[in-house]
Amino acid sequence: MGLLDEVIQAYGGVSRWQQISTIKIHQILGGGLWAIKGVDGILNKSVVEISLPEERAWHRPLPKAGLRSSFQPGRVQIETDDDDAQTVEVLTSPRESFRGHKLETPWSTLQLAYFAGYAMWTYLSEPFSLTLPGVQTDQIEDWNEDGEVWRRLRVRYPANIATHSTEQVVYVDSNGLLRRRDYDVDIADSSPAAHYMYDHREFDGIVMPLKRVVYVRDERGHPMRDMVTVTIDVTEVSIT
After folding, report:
1. What domains lie within the chain, and their CATH numbers?
2. 228 DSSP β-pair partners
3. Rounded to two decimals, what is the model's pTM?
4. CA-CA distance, 168 to 225, in Å (whole number)?
5. How many CA atoms lie within 13 A of 235 on its CB side?
6. Burial of 82 (0-12, 13-18, 19+ CB in 10 A)
7. Which residues pair with residue 26 across a beta bridge?
8. Are 9 and 180 in contact (CB under 8 A)?
9. What is the pLDDT, as a whole number, of residue 1?
10. Is 17 left (phi over 0), alpha (psi -120 to 50) or beta?
């Protein structure tokens, strides 16, 4: 059994993931990124919904009660949060809007919706999304993390999947669980990140971490523990 197969099995198995159409969570966000980008407080307490395997995501409320975001890789919009879903504003080719951005460049509401949409789809769809067409994974050398040996997979995403960066690395513990993900945030001046996952629980046949902490990653590949960019605490999970 290959490492990716072991990971998929630890998270509930590919057959169970293929039965899922949506994952919905309630989350509490923290960390320093939001203030740097001028969007602090907007998503502090929010509901996230993603679809599988199509890359789509919704955040509500965003930017305020009665409105939600609707994300796809090539289009993001703010719409009314009701059955009619009337479009309020829209941004096409959203990734192009970040061209020339530095870490401290502020985001518009639609840019926040794009970042949050692709990031949460990446996180909530893993590890199933690693099996999608065009995604390539290769096992690389092991990593010692505080006395634990974590195996690693280098992941390369195709152009049609929006995510932090084309190439990322995921770290796997002895139970087959993803414990860390390294990436560079392309839309924020390729800022290097070390993203940790904790408190894995089973929900309706799949496994999900309930806590995530993202640190700035230094040149040696280690997290800078005093520089927390994002925290995510999941309080409710619904799978359909």
Report:
1. 3-239 (2.50.20)
2. 215
3. 0.97
4. 20
5. 8
6. exposed
7. 47, 236
8. no
9. 75
10. alpha
Which pair of tokens denotes residue 73? 């890789």
For residue 103, the SS3 value is: coil
Mean pLDDT of 5-25: 98
Residue with tokens 């639609």, as numbered in its chain: 110
What's the pLDDT band for 60 if we cut at 50, 70, 90? very high
- Looking at beta carbons, which pairs linking 135-143 to residues 24 or more positions away fall under 8 Å? 135/161, 137/3, 137/4, 139/2, 139/3, 140/169, 143/171, 143/221
What sign does the CA torsion over 202, 183, 59, 85 have?
negative
Beta carbons of 10 and 4 less than 8 angstroms apart: no
**Is the model's pLDDT at 73 over the cut of 80?**
yes
Look-up: residue for tokens 């039965």?
19
Identify the burial level of 116 via C-beta atoms within 10 angstroms of its C-beta, where 0-12 means exposed, 13-18 middle and 19 or more buried.
Answer: buried
Distance CA(225)–CA(223), nearest Å, equals 6
